[in-house]
């Protein structure tokens, strides 16, 4: 793992190294990001004393336009690494489909996975000591320090990376079903009211689990629907 005092974006830096021929396994940590990125082109606001970590991996997947089990392996590693760092967080953390980390229903961290050919850059960002201003983010926010003292950011990053290696090993030995079941144990419980927003869709319903390949099952007034992509919000608007 490389540690930098400041980068514009750890994921952009990893992609630059990828294009320059860097081997798989590079992890990059920045103590501050000036232009961090979230999903769907959003900006990730660095509130200071945050985790900004990206990993470059070889990742052969079967479908050209999907990431397979990677959102689940990454979110499990992220969740478990944060709990390893602050054990009291376990009863308050949850995963929102497919890979956001929530604390008491408020966003604490997120993952951005980008693919170039058969390579992936997995970026993870988490509020450790300070939660960003909700007026700027437009959603409820939280930080890990609300659960107890947080160690040095490098220690947190190593905990996440160790868990990522563990979950990749489990995935390779036992298949995706092991990830799916472990993810469900850490996710919002069945029956949680959810809203799904897409470019041309809007669905309200209740969380009903995952399909065998990890798509979201949503119970609606029109029946159970299978969701492959979209912004997922808790119905209270705090997701």
UniProtKB/TrEMBL annotation:
BPL/LPL catalytic domain residues: 1-172
Pfam families hit by this protein: BPL_C, BPL_LplA_LipB
GO cellular component assignments: cytoplasm
Keywords, comma-separated and alphabetical: Biotin, Ligase
Protein name (database record): biotin--[biotin carboxyl-carrier protein] ligase
Reactions it catalyzes: biotin + L-lysyl-[protein] + ATP = N(6)-biotinyl-L-lysyl-[protein] + AMP + diphosphate + H(+)
Residues annotated as transmembrane: none
InterPro entries reported for this sequence: aa-tRNA-synth_II/BPL/LPL (IPR045864), Biotin_CoA_COase_ligase (IPR004408), BPL_C (IPR003142), BPL_LPL_catalytic (IPR004143)
EC code: 6.3.4.15
GO molecular function terms attached to this record: biotin--[biotin carboxyl-carrier protein] ligase activity
């Amino acid at each position: 793992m490389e540690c930098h005092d400041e980068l514009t974006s750890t994921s952009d830096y990893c992609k630059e190294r990828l294009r320059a021929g860097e081997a798989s396994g590079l992890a990059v940590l920045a103590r501050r990001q000036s232009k961090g990125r979230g999903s769907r082109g959003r900006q990730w606001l660095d509130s200071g004393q945050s985790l900004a970590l990206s990993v470059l991996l070889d990742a052969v997947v079967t479908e050209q336009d999907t990431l397979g089990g990677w959102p689940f392996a990454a979110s499990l590693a992220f969740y478990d690494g944060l709990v390893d760092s602050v054990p009291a967080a376990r009863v308050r953390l949850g995963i929102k489909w497919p890979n956001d980390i929530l604390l008491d229903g408020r966003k604490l961290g997120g993952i951005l996975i980008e693919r170039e050919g058969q390579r992936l850059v997995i970026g993870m960002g988490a509020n450790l000591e300070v939660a960003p201003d909700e007026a700027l983010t437009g959603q409820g926010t939280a930080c890990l320090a609300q659960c107890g003292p947080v160690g040095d950011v490098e220690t947190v990053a190593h905990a996440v990376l160790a868990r990522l290696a563990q979950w990749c090993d489990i995935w390779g030995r036992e298949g995706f079903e092991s990830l799916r079941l472990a993810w469900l144990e850490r996710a919002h419980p069945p029956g949680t009211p959810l809203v799904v927003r897409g470019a041309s869709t809007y669905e309200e319903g209740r969380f009903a689990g995952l399909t065998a390949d990890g798509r979201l099952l949503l119970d609606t007034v029109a029946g159970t629907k299978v969701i492959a992509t979209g912004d997922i919000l808790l119905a209270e608007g705090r997701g």
